Amino acid sequence: MGAVGHARAGPRAHVRVARNRDELTTLIAVGRPATVEDGGSARLAAIADAVEAAGGTVLDLVAVAPGRPLAIKAATALYVLLRELVLGRNGTVHIEYPGFPSIGVYYRSPSPSPAERLPRAVAYHLATLAVALIGAACRARRRRFVVGIGDLPSMELDLPDRGRMASRRLTERYERRLLATADAVWVVTPEERDVLVRAYGADPSLFVIVPNGNPRVPLPVRASHDGPVQVVYAGSLYRDRDNLVEAIQAALDQARRPLTVTLAGPGGEWVEPTFADHRVRWLGTISQRECFDLVSASDVGILVYFDDEPYYAIAHPTKLSLYLAATIPIASGNARYIERFVREHGVGVAVPRSAFPAALVRLIDDAGRRREMSERAAAIRDDFFWDAILQKAFADTRAITRR
Question: How many CA atoms, within 13 angstroms, populate the side-chain half-sphere of residue 376?
Answer without folding.
Answer: 17
